[in-house]
Amino acid sequence: MASLFKAPTNNTLQLHKLDLFTGSSRINRQSSNSDNGNVAFSRKRSLVPPVLSMSATGASTKEHLETPMSKNLHIPIMVNSCTGKMGKAVIKAADAAGLELVPVSFGTEEESGQKVEVCGKEIQVHGLSDRESVLASVFDKYPNMIVVDYTVPAAVNGNAELYSKVGVPFVMGTTGGDRVRLHETVENSNVYAVISPQMGKQVVAFLAAMEIMAEQFPGAFSGYSLQVLESHQAGKLDTSGTAKAVISCFQKLGVSFDKDQSSRHIHQIQMIRDPKQQLEMVGVPEEHLLGHAFHMYHLTSPDQTVSFEFQHNVCGRSIYAEGTVDAVLFLSKKVQSKADKCIYNMIDVLREGNMR
Q1: pLDDT tens, 279-333?
Q2: Which of 22, 141, 226, 353 is most buried, most CB within 10 Å of its CB?
Q3: What would the DSSP string read from start to end of 139-188?
Q4: How many CB atoms lie within 10 A of CB 267?
Q5: What's residue 45's pLDDT?
Q6: Percent of the chain with pLDDT strictly greater than 90
Q7: What is the pLDDT of residues 139-163, one digit of tens each?
Q8: Dihedral pair phi/psi, residue 182, rounded to 5°
């Protein structure tokens, strides 16, 4: 297939003609391949598709990490999986925002007993065996504490059950797991939580706009076909939760798409995790191979005379770390005010309007 991404020049992401969906040479929309779903994204056509794209790099958002309004807040924050890349990014953002870092974190059994230093802070890592007693003890010492979870999909439900049992408010940034069970766990415990598969504020705003469009114009894209490509660092094991959320909006707009990839007749989400493909096909900058999130959605009308492309690309992790800190600040206010509602998402955080 054709054009999606190009590596940034001077930190600016650009669209580029690439054979991403088929891995073969660029095809014409009029070619016979269009009958089997292999629709090219060539720019060389008379009908130029409307394109909505957004991009962010670590450098472009760095200046927002520290603001006078956010200093010296003294809100204790416990970051689990503090040795992971997202954990480190959140600690950096939290430290810059003036939050109080709790010197305890949960990690793997192999990491248990280790003391690690992140942003000049020494943190004691605990494994799985003594998590409940450790968390209860820490919560007694820091009663206003908020836990931040950036672990792995397989740990989502077990961790949420632990936080709920102890009664500690938490921000769940980890994707995957059984999301229905996750919400049920929190609802039954009345623990305050922000749960969102996407913590980047600007990307969440885009998702909110998509939800509004889907609500107000159901069926507007009936009959259109959809192709989705998402590229993340090799360590991300699950399909992009953001891509799934956007696809849900397109489904409400009338597009047929099987997120579970159970139908061979419907286009699937193309996951790119191979660094070589990310460099050569997607155009991810080499310095961001270990931390990026590129998404592209291509819609084509039934007669293939109209197409739309939506694209959002993120390099680095600062956009998610900043959003996580805003979620912590938001949740702390809800806890202190004893708000009636307990479960929130990042759209709720955006609507509050008090971000840094």
Answers
A1: 999 999 999 999 999 999 999 999 999 999 999 999 999 999 999 999 999 999 9
A2: 226
A3: HHH-TT-EEEE---GGGHHHHHHHHHHHT--EEE----S-HHHHHHHHHH
A4: 19
A5: 36
A6: 65
A7: 999 999 999 999 999 999 999 999 9
A8: -60, -50
Q: Evaluate whether 243 touches 249 at the Cβ level (below 8 Å).
A: no
Computed over its alpha carbons, how large is the radius of gyration of the chain? 21
User: Residue written as tokens 């996951």?
Assistant: 271
Task: Quote the tokens at residue 216.
Answer: 């107000």
Question: How long, in residues, is the chain?
Answer: 356
pLDDT of the residue at 10: 40
Q: Is residue 320 within 8 Å of residue 200, measured between CB atoms?
A: yes
Chain segment 35-73, per-residue pLDDT in tens: 434 333 333 333 344 555 566 665 444 444 444 444 556
Task: Please identify which residue in the block is written with the tokens 């507007």.
Answer: 220
Query: Which candidate, 324, 347, 326, 322, places its Cα nearest to that of 79?
Result: 324
Query: Tokens representing 52?
Result: 């909505």
Give yes or no for a contact between 148 and 171, defined as CB atoms under 8 angstroms apart.
yes
Contact 294, 228 (CB under 8 A): no
Catalytic annotation, residues: 232, 236
Helix (H, G, I), strand (E, B) or coil at 121: strand
Query: Which residue spans within the chain are E strands per DSSP?
Result: 6-9, 12-14, 51-56, 76-80, 100-101, 104-106, 115-118, 121-126, 146-149, 170-172, 193-195, 225-232, 269-272, 292-300, 307-315, 343-344
* Residues near 40 by beta carbon (within 8 Å), at least 6 away in sequence: 1, 2, 26, 27, 28, 29, 31, 33, 34
For the stretch 319-331, what's the b/e string if a residue is b when 16 or more beta carbons lie within 10 angstroms of its beta carbon? Answer: bbbbbbbbbbbbb
